[in-house]
Write a sequence for this structure.
Protein backbone atom coordinates (compact mmCIF):
# COMPACT_ATOMS: atom_id res chain seq x y z
CA UNK A 1 0.00 0.00 0.00
CA UNK A 2 1.35 3.43 -0.96
CA UNK A 3 2.02 5.86 1.87
CA UNK A 4 2.09 8.94 -0.38
CA UNK A 5 1.24 9.64 -3.99
CA UNK A 6 3.50 11.84 -6.11
CA UNK A 7 1.44 13.44 -8.86
CA UNK A 8 4.11 15.55 -10.55
CA UNK A 9 7.72 16.63 -10.56
CA UNK A 10 7.53 20.37 -9.89
CA UNK A 11 11.15 21.17 -10.72
CA UNK A 12 14.76 20.15 -10.40
CA UNK A 13 16.55 22.33 -7.84
CA UNK A 14 20.31 22.66 -8.37
CA UNK A 15 22.92 24.44 -6.25
CA UNK A 16 25.41 26.62 -8.12
CA UNK A 17 28.40 28.71 -7.09
CA UNK A 18 27.69 31.84 -9.16
CA UNK A 19 24.09 32.42 -10.20
CA UNK A 20 24.83 34.76 -13.10
CA UNK A 21 27.38 32.39 -14.62
CA UNK A 22 25.01 29.43 -14.49
CA UNK A 23 22.01 31.37 -15.79
CA UNK A 24 24.05 32.51 -18.81
CA UNK A 25 25.17 28.93 -19.47
CA UNK A 26 21.67 27.42 -19.39
CA UNK A 27 20.14 30.26 -21.40
CA UNK A 28 22.73 30.66 -24.12
CA UNK A 29 23.79 27.06 -24.60
CA UNK A 30 20.62 25.10 -23.78
CA UNK A 31 17.77 27.47 -24.55
CA UNK A 32 16.29 27.92 -21.06
CA UNK A 33 14.33 31.11 -20.37
CA UNK A 34 13.73 32.86 -17.03
CA UNK A 35 10.40 32.11 -15.36
CA UNK A 36 10.63 35.49 -13.62
CA UNK A 37 13.18 37.70 -11.85
CA UNK A 38 15.81 36.55 -9.36
CA UNK A 39 14.28 36.30 -5.89
CA UNK A 40 15.31 35.56 -2.31
CA UNK A 41 14.56 32.09 -0.98
CA UNK A 42 11.94 32.26 1.75
CA UNK A 43 13.14 31.86 5.33
CA UNK A 44 11.40 28.52 5.95
CA UNK A 45 13.31 26.88 3.07
CA UNK A 46 16.60 28.59 4.00
CA UNK A 47 16.29 27.00 7.44
CA UNK A 48 15.14 23.64 6.09
CA UNK A 49 18.11 23.39 3.72
CA UNK A 50 20.61 24.64 6.28
CA UNK A 51 21.84 27.78 4.53
CA UNK A 52 22.08 29.64 7.83
CA UNK A 53 20.99 33.23 8.17
CA UNK A 54 22.30 34.75 4.95
CA UNK A 55 20.10 35.61 1.97
CA UNK A 56 19.98 32.98 -0.78
CA UNK A 57 19.30 34.10 -4.35
CA UNK A 58 17.27 31.87 -6.66
CA UNK A 59 16.54 31.94 -10.40
CA UNK A 60 13.96 29.66 -11.97
CA UNK A 61 14.39 28.79 -15.64
CA UNK A 62 11.91 27.12 -17.97
CA UNK A 63 12.38 24.78 -20.91
CA UNK A 64 8.96 24.20 -22.42
CA UNK A 65 6.70 23.46 -19.48
CA UNK A 66 9.47 22.08 -17.23
CA UNK A 67 11.43 24.08 -14.70
CA UNK A 68 15.00 24.16 -13.43
CA UNK A 69 15.67 26.05 -10.21
CA UNK A 70 19.18 27.43 -9.70
CA UNK A 71 20.10 28.19 -6.09
CA UNK A 72 23.18 30.32 -5.37
CA UNK A 73 24.99 28.35 -2.68
CA UNK A 74 28.01 30.67 -2.93
CA UNK A 75 31.78 30.27 -3.29
CA UNK A 76 32.23 28.54 0.08
CA UNK A 77 29.87 25.65 -0.70
CA UNK A 78 31.54 22.23 -0.89
CA UNK A 79 32.35 21.80 -4.62
CA UNK A 80 31.24 19.01 -6.90
CA UNK A 81 33.56 16.01 -6.32
CA UNK A 82 36.41 15.75 -8.83
CA UNK A 83 36.67 12.77 -11.18
CA UNK A 84 33.03 11.81 -10.58
CA UNK A 85 31.32 9.31 -12.84
CA UNK A 86 27.70 8.34 -13.43
CA UNK A 87 28.23 5.20 -11.33
CA UNK A 88 29.00 7.22 -8.19
CA UNK A 89 26.11 7.33 -5.76
CA UNK A 90 25.87 11.13 -5.60
CA UNK A 91 25.31 11.27 -9.38
CA UNK A 92 22.18 13.02 -10.62
CA UNK A 93 21.60 14.46 -14.05
CA UNK A 94 18.68 15.63 -16.11
CA UNK A 95 18.17 14.85 -19.78
CA UNK A 96 16.91 17.27 -22.42
CA UNK A 97 15.03 15.61 -25.27
CA UNK A 98 16.05 16.95 -28.70
CA UNK A 99 14.50 16.91 -32.16
CA UNK A 100 17.97 17.18 -33.72
CA UNK A 101 20.82 16.31 -31.39
CA UNK A 102 23.51 17.36 -33.87
CA UNK A 103 22.08 20.89 -33.91
CA UNK A 104 21.69 20.82 -30.13
CA UNK A 105 25.37 19.92 -29.67
CA UNK A 106 26.38 22.70 -32.07
CA UNK A 107 24.36 25.18 -29.99
CA UNK A 108 25.92 23.77 -26.84
CA UNK A 109 29.38 24.67 -28.16
CA UNK A 110 28.36 27.82 -30.03
CA UNK A 111 31.41 30.08 -30.46
CA UNK A 112 29.46 33.34 -30.15
CA UNK A 113 28.55 32.76 -26.49
CA UNK A 114 30.72 34.20 -23.75
CA UNK A 115 29.35 31.72 -21.19
CA UNK A 116 31.51 28.89 -19.86
CA UNK A 117 32.12 26.07 -22.33
CA UNK A 118 30.75 22.70 -21.17
CA UNK A 119 33.18 19.90 -20.37
CA UNK A 120 32.30 16.82 -22.43
CA UNK A 121 31.75 13.48 -20.69
CA UNK A 122 30.88 11.45 -23.78
CA UNK A 123 33.33 11.09 -26.62
CA UNK A 124 35.11 8.80 -29.02
CA UNK A 125 38.90 8.99 -29.27
CA UNK A 126 39.85 11.62 -31.83
CA UNK A 127 36.25 12.79 -32.33
CA UNK A 128 35.20 16.06 -30.71
CA UNK A 129 31.70 16.50 -29.25
CA UNK A 130 30.12 13.54 -31.02
CA UNK A 131 26.71 12.16 -29.89
CA UNK A 132 26.66 8.42 -29.22
CA UNK A 133 24.06 6.11 -30.78
CA UNK A 134 23.08 3.27 -28.44
CA UNK A 135 22.13 -0.11 -29.92
CA UNK A 136 18.48 -1.15 -30.16
CA UNK A 137 18.77 -3.50 -27.18
CA UNK A 138 19.76 -0.48 -25.05
CA UNK A 139 16.89 1.66 -26.30
CA UNK A 140 18.37 2.94 -29.58
CA UNK A 141 18.62 6.56 -28.44
CA UNK A 142 21.37 8.96 -29.46
CA UNK A 143 22.83 10.89 -26.53
CA UNK A 144 25.61 13.19 -25.40
CA UNK A 145 26.64 13.91 -21.81
CA UNK A 146 28.54 16.93 -20.49
CA UNK A 147 29.03 19.11 -17.41
CA UNK A 148 27.81 22.59 -16.55
CA UNK A 149 30.13 25.25 -15.02
CA UNK A 150 29.91 23.68 -11.55
CA UNK A 151 30.47 20.10 -12.73
CA UNK A 152 26.82 19.01 -12.68
CA UNK A 153 26.14 16.38 -15.37
CA UNK A 154 23.56 17.07 -18.09
CA UNK A 155 22.45 14.91 -21.03
CA UNK A 156 21.09 15.66 -24.49
CA UNK A 157 19.03 12.79 -25.88
CA UNK A 158 17.19 12.05 -29.12
CA UNK A 159 14.89 9.05 -29.35
CA UNK A 160 14.61 7.06 -32.57
CA UNK A 161 11.67 7.23 -34.96
CA UNK A 162 8.24 6.65 -33.51
CA UNK A 163 8.51 6.75 -29.74
CA UNK A 164 4.85 7.29 -28.89
CA UNK A 165 3.93 9.79 -26.18
CA UNK A 166 7.54 10.57 -25.35
CA UNK A 167 8.05 12.24 -28.72
CA UNK A 168 5.78 15.11 -27.67
CA UNK A 169 8.37 16.25 -25.12
CA UNK A 170 11.18 17.02 -27.54
CA UNK A 171 12.89 20.25 -26.56
CA UNK A 172 11.97 19.74 -22.91
CA UNK A 173 13.32 17.92 -19.86
CA UNK A 174 12.65 14.20 -20.33
CA UNK A 175 13.88 12.83 -17.01
CA UNK A 176 16.22 13.16 -14.07
CA UNK A 177 18.44 10.13 -13.42
CA UNK A 178 20.06 9.14 -10.13
CA UNK A 179 22.67 6.47 -9.44
CA UNK A 180 21.66 3.90 -6.83
CA UNK A 181 23.28 0.97 -5.04
CA UNK A 182 20.35 -1.46 -4.88
CA UNK A 183 17.66 -1.48 -7.58
CA UNK A 184 15.13 -3.49 -5.58
CA UNK A 185 15.42 -1.31 -2.48
CA UNK A 186 15.09 1.91 -4.49
CA UNK A 187 12.10 0.65 -6.48
CA UNK A 188 10.42 -0.35 -3.20
CA UNK A 189 11.04 3.14 -1.79
CA UNK A 190 9.83 5.12 -4.78
CA UNK A 191 6.81 2.92 -5.48
CA UNK A 192 5.85 1.87 -1.95
CA UNK A 193 6.50 5.13 -0.12
CA UNK A 194 6.00 7.74 -2.83
CA UNK A 195 3.50 5.99 -5.09
CA UNK A 196 5.43 6.18 -8.38
CA UNK A 197 4.94 3.43 -10.96
CA UNK A 198 7.56 1.46 -12.89
CA UNK A 199 7.46 2.24 -16.59
CA UNK A 200 10.36 0.43 -18.25
CA UNK A 201 13.17 -1.70 -16.82
CA UNK A 202 16.12 -2.57 -19.05
CA UNK A 203 19.84 -3.24 -18.91
CA UNK A 204 22.20 -1.10 -21.00
CA UNK A 205 25.71 -2.32 -21.76
CA UNK A 206 28.31 -2.55 -24.47
CA UNK A 207 30.95 -0.38 -26.09
CA UNK A 208 28.61 2.53 -26.89
CA UNK A 209 27.30 2.75 -23.32
CA UNK A 210 30.88 2.92 -22.08
CA UNK A 211 31.72 5.76 -24.47
CA UNK A 212 28.55 7.64 -23.51
CA UNK A 213 29.34 7.37 -19.78
CA UNK A 214 33.16 7.54 -20.08
CA UNK A 215 33.28 4.22 -18.21
CA UNK A 216 35.02 0.97 -19.09
CA UNK A 217 32.72 -2.06 -19.51
CA UNK A 218 29.65 -0.18 -18.27
CA UNK A 219 26.63 -2.34 -17.41
CA UNK A 220 23.68 -0.49 -15.91
CA UNK A 221 20.09 -1.34 -15.02
CA UNK A 222 17.78 1.52 -15.96
CA UNK A 223 14.37 1.76 -14.30
CA UNK A 224 11.94 4.49 -15.37
CA UNK A 225 9.57 5.68 -12.63
CA UNK A 226 6.53 7.68 -13.63
CA UNK A 227 3.99 9.90 -11.97
CA UNK A 228 0.32 9.54 -12.82
CA UNK A 229 -1.26 10.95 -14.90
CA UNK A 230 1.75 12.90 -16.19
CA UNK A 231 4.23 11.10 -18.46
CA UNK A 232 7.16 13.49 -18.33
CA UNK A 233 9.50 14.40 -16.83
CA UNK A 234 10.08 11.18 -14.97
CA UNK A 235 12.74 9.70 -12.68
CA UNK A 236 15.28 7.13 -13.81
CA UNK A 237 17.13 4.84 -11.43
CA UNK A 238 20.63 3.83 -12.60
CA UNK A 239 21.89 0.67 -10.95
CA UNK A 240 25.45 0.11 -12.20
CA UNK A 241 26.57 -3.50 -12.05
CA UNK A 242 29.90 -2.48 -13.55
CA UNK A 243 31.71 -0.46 -12.43
CA UNK A 244 30.41 -0.43 -8.88
CA UNK A 245 29.86 3.15 -7.77
CA UNK A 246 31.32 4.71 -4.66
CA UNK A 247 29.55 6.71 -1.98
CA UNK A 248 30.71 10.00 -0.49
CA UNK A 249 32.87 9.69 2.62
CA UNK A 250 30.62 12.24 4.28
CA UNK A 251 26.87 12.76 4.25
CA UNK A 252 26.24 15.41 1.63
CA UNK A 253 24.79 18.61 3.02
CA UNK A 254 21.82 20.17 1.19
CA UNK A 255 24.10 23.19 0.69
CA UNK A 256 26.79 21.21 -1.21
CA UNK A 257 27.05 21.88 -4.94
CA UNK A 258 26.41 18.19 -5.67
CA UNK A 259 23.14 18.17 -3.70
CA UNK A 260 20.50 18.33 -6.41
CA UNK A 261 16.91 18.06 -5.21
CA UNK A 262 13.87 16.75 -7.00
CA UNK A 263 10.90 18.86 -5.93
CA UNK A 264 7.87 16.56 -5.87
CA UNK A 265 4.24 17.50 -5.35
CA UNK A 266 2.35 14.73 -3.56
CA UNK A 267 -0.59 13.78 -1.41
CA UNK A 268 0.14 12.35 2.05
CA UNK A 269 3.20 14.36 3.07
CA UNK A 270 2.94 13.85 6.82
CA UNK A 271 2.32 10.14 6.36
CA UNK A 272 5.52 9.82 4.30
CA UNK A 273 7.58 11.67 6.91
CA UNK A 274 6.11 9.50 9.67
CA UNK A 275 6.66 6.26 7.72
CA UNK A 276 10.33 7.09 7.21
CA UNK A 277 10.83 8.15 10.83
CA UNK A 278 12.42 11.16 9.17
CA UNK A 279 13.96 13.85 11.34
CA UNK A 280 12.92 16.48 8.82
CA UNK A 281 10.42 18.97 10.06
CA UNK A 282 7.35 19.85 8.02
CA UNK A 283 7.37 23.59 7.34
CA UNK A 284 4.68 25.96 6.16
CA UNK A 285 5.47 27.99 3.02
CA UNK A 286 4.23 31.45 2.08
CA UNK A 287 2.14 29.70 -0.61
CA UNK A 288 0.31 27.98 2.29
CA UNK A 289 1.69 24.62 1.12
CA UNK A 290 3.64 22.31 3.43
CA UNK A 291 7.16 21.08 2.64
CA UNK A 292 9.63 18.53 3.98
CA UNK A 293 13.12 17.44 2.95
CA UNK A 294 13.81 13.69 2.92
CA UNK A 295 16.48 11.33 1.58
CA UNK A 296 16.07 8.20 -0.50
CA UNK A 297 17.97 4.96 0.40
CA UNK A 298 21.18 6.30 -1.17
CA UNK A 299 20.96 9.78 0.29
CA UNK A 300 19.53 11.63 -2.72
CA UNK A 301 17.51 14.62 -1.54
CA UNK A 302 13.81 15.00 -2.26
CA UNK A 303 11.81 18.11 -1.45
CA UNK A 304 8.20 17.06 -0.88
CA UNK A 305 5.42 19.62 -1.21
CA UNK A 306 1.71 19.25 -0.48
Amino acid sequence: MNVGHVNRIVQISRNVTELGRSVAFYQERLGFQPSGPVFRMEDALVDLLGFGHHAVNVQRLRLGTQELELVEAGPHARPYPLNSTSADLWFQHFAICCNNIQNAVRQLYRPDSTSVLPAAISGRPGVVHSPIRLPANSGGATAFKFRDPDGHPVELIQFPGDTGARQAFNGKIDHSAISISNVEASVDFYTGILGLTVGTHQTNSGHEQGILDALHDAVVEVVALRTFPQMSPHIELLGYRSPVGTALRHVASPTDIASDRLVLHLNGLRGVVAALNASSQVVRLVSHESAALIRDPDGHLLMLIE
About this structure: The radius of gyration is 18 Å.
